[in-house]
């Protein structure tokens, strides 16, 4: 769940829908490793899925990464009629090379947030795609 309050307390103080998140592979781990050698294509990368209960469309969900200069938008989406938004993680730097090492992320829906960490391990992914201009 996004935020630091329990679902029952959150419902009592905030009329907004309850928010849950998980990785597309079902994991709810706040930290994970993504190994380049195990990624045959970008479709193999896990995505972040945010779900609202009750299903609420139109909420903006933002995934940001943190570097030495602050927070930067990695991906954003609006929840659909099913109350879900799917966000992607970009494993490439500005030069199109696979990232190596830990990266900190912030998942945000309005004022509710969750901190995530991904450790990228370098290798030779089978399929490469240029990054969208992040991390030197």
**Beta-strand percentage range:** 35-45%
Average of the residue pLDDT scores: 82
Beta-strand segment tally: 8
Distance between the termini: 32 Å
Task: For the largest sheet, list the strands in their spatial order.
Answer: 2-8-7-4-5
Low-confidence stretches: 1-13, 125-133
Rg (CA only) = 16 Å
- How would you characterize the largest beta sheet? 5 strands, mixed
Shape: globular
SS-derived structural category: mainly beta
Along the chain, the helix and strand elements come as HEEEEEEEE
Number of separate helices: 1
Give the fraction of residues assigned to helices. Answer: under 10%
Seen as an oligomer or otherwise, the chain set is single chain
Give structural notes:
With 136 residues, the chain is mainly β. It is 5% helix and 42% strand. It has one helix and eight strands. Strands 2-8-7-4-5 form a five-stranded mixed sheet, with no helix packed on it. The N and C termini lie far apart (32 Å).
């Amino acid at each position: 769940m996004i935020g630091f309050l329990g679902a029952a307390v959150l419902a009592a103080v905030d009329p907004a829908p309850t928010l849950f998140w998980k990785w597309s592979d079902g994991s709810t781990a706040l930290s994970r490793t993504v190994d380049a050698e195990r990624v045959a294509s970008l479709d193999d990368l896990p995505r972040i899925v945010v779900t609202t209960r009750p299903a609420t469309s139109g909420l903006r969900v933002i995934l940001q990464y943190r570097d030495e200069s602050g927070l930067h938008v990695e991906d954003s989406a609006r929840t659909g009629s099913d109350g879900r938004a799917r966000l992607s993680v970009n494993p490439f730097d500005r030069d199109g090379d696979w990232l190596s090492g830990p990266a900190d992320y912030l998942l945000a829906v309005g004022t509710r947030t969750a901190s995530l960490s991904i450790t990228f391990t370098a290798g030779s992914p089978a399929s490469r795609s240029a990054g969208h201009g992040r991390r030197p």
